[in-house]
Amino acid sequence: MEWPPRPARPFLRFRLAERQQAKSLAVATASDWEVFCKHVIEVLAHPQVIARKMVREMESPVGPVPVIGSPLRLSDSPARFDPIPSLGEDTEPILRELGYGDADIENLRRDKVI
Prior knowledge:
This protein folds into 3 domains: 33 residues; 33 residues, no CATH class; 26 residues, no CATH class. The chain is extended, with a radius of gyration of 20 Å. The chain is built from 5 helices and 2 strands. 42% of the residues lie in helices and 7% in strands. It starts with 8 loop residues before the first helix and ends with a helix. The longest helix is centred in the first third of the chain and has 22 residues. By secondary structure, it is mainly alpha-helical.
C-alpha cells in the first residue's frame, strides 16, 4: 500500500494548512495587527449566532450535545444534520475508504490501534 493513501492526501494538506494558519496567527499576535480570533464559547454566545439560531442540540450516543448549524440559509437546500456516530462506529468504513484492506484492519485491531 502506498503511503499516504491517495484519499488521505487532502486531509494531510488540510493539516499542513492548519499548521501554517497557527504560525500566521502567532506572527499576527506578536505584531501590531488586529486579530479577531474568538474562542468557541465567545462565538456561541455572540448575539448574531443566537439571533440566527445557529446552535442546535442533537442527540448523540452520550446524550444531547450542542452543534453549530450552517450559516447558509438556502430555500431549496435546507441544512442536513446527520446522526452523530458512536465512538468507533465509522472506523472501518473510513479505513476502507483510505485504502486499507481486511488484513490491514485486522492488524490494527490486533495491535490495539483501533
